[in-house]
Amino acid sequence: MDDTTRVWTIERLAEALDAPDHMGEVSVERVGEVLRVTLHDHGDLAVFLSVAGEQIVVSTLLWPVDEMTDAAAFNHFLLKAQKLVPLSNFAITDVDGREYYELIGELSVESSLRTILIELRVLAHNALDAAADLRHAFAAA
Q: Which InterPro entries does its entry note (predicted)?
């Protein structure tokens, strides 16, 4: 599949990301209307990709909210530190009745495949940095 402008669907994204060109960098598994993209160069981090209207949303779970001693203070810290995490946003999401911090990025459904791959890499890099740096920085503050 070439990199010309198109409107992406889950099916097209699954096919494009699962192409031999990306073998070794990513593995793709479809889970309903979501793709689980495993980024091998980022410690096999799982990033979830979905298409919603005009957007492609990519996200990854960080850690459970209830593991933070003072979640309210940490949430405040995250809002202030947001500018340190380019192209990504923090959120809280519920997974099986437990809240998790999540890192999210969004793109247009008309983004090139190259841009989508860049977003996946950036999100993975930011998630690993957040896990290593932000959580510990707050604990030390």
A: DUF2170
Q: What pTM does this model have? A: 0.84
The angle at the Cα of 81, spanning 104 to 110, to the nearest 5 degrees, equals 30
Give the residues across from 57 on adjacent strands: 50, 106
3-class DSSP state of 66: helix
Note the pLDDT tens digit of each residue in 18-31.
Answer: 998 888 899 999 99
pLDDT tens across 98-107, in order?
999 999 999 9
CATH architecture, domain defined by 10-140: 2-Layer Sandwich (3.30)
Whole-angstrom Cα distance, residue 37 to residue 138?
29
- Residue 89's H or E segment, with its range, is strand 89-95
Phi then psi dihedrals of residue 90, to 5 deg? -90, 150
